[in-house]
Amino acid sequence: MVPRKLRVKALLIDLDGTIVDSSEALKEAGRAGFAAIGLDDVNDEKIAREVARRLEQDLPIDDLFAEFHLSEDVEERFLPAYLNAYYSAVITKSKPFPRVKETLQSLSRNFKLALITLRYADREQVIDELTHLGIKKHFQVVVTALDVDKPKPSPDALLSAASKLNTPITQCAIVGDSIVDVQAGETAGAKTVAVLTGLFGQEELKQQRPDLVIKDINSLPGFLEKAG
Predict the structure, then answer these.
(1) What is the CATH number of the domain that holds 205?
(2) Are residues 111 and 129 in the same domain?
(3) pTM for the predicted model, two decimal places
(4) Which of 33, 84, 174, 177 is least enclosed, having the fewest CB within 10 Å?
(5) What mean pLDDT do residues 135-147 have?
(6) Cα four-point dihedral sign 134, 139, 144, 147
(7) Which domain holds residue 184?
(8) In a domain? residue 1
(9) Is 120 contained in some domain?
(10) pLDDT of residue 3
């Protein structure tokens, strides 16, 4: 079967779970969060990942700790420690997925690339990380959650990136691993590509009706065609 091709001029690419593996940073965050609520001997990686999933969707997390019989303010104690540890660790613990550097190099020959991240981090910090990882040169634009009034699933970051790339949003595709990436893309009017390397599974992502669901970003070039 001939793969369905998306005709685009630019790609708006998510960071964590899409081009870099930040699972080690999530483990660090989990350890710090549990320590903050008095559970130094606990580091449930499933809970740490579920916290990240819910934060992306702006969902509560208190019920995740019901088995530990903690006080009701667990979220107020857990989250600051979790997020501080994550943002500290993600700079040094994250690493590109296999063959991502080669894929980005290939994509950048034919398409404009922007990096969009949900991280509440200074843009220069993210740029420094991309430079350290050897992939900054492929991105013309970097947009973080601090650069817009409303982060994903709001379309603000996508629209800002498309504008900076001087490309109509309808000729852009958002490439990400999460539900909010697809939601933001649909709202913005961009094409949507979901990858299966992050926190969300295939069925969850398919329910959002993206234009494509692919194994990883390395599969992407075969599904693209440059718009005229």
Answers:
(1) 3.40.50.1000
(2) yes
(3) 0.90
(4) 84
(5) 96
(6) positive
(7) 6-21+95-226
(8) no
(9) yes
(10) 55
Tokens for 48, please give them. 């740490």
**Span 106-130, pLDDT tens digits:** 999 999 999 999 898 899 999 999 9
- What are 156-215's pLDDT values in tens digits? 999 999 999 999 999 999 999 999 999 999 999 999 999 999 999 999 999 999 999 999
Report the alpha-carbon distance of residue 213 to residue 74 in Å, rounded.
36
- Kindly report each contact of residues 159-165 with a partner whose C-beta sits within 8 Å and lies 24 or more positions away, as own/partner: 159/188, 161/12, 161/114, 161/116, 162/10, 162/12, 162/114, 162/188, 162/190, 164/114, 164/140, 165/10, 165/112, 165/114, 165/140, 165/141
* Same domain assignment for residues 15 and 43: no
59-67 mean pLDDT: 80
* Co-location of 84 and 128 in the same domain: no
User: Among residues 61, 93, 125, which one ends one of the domains?
Assistant: 93
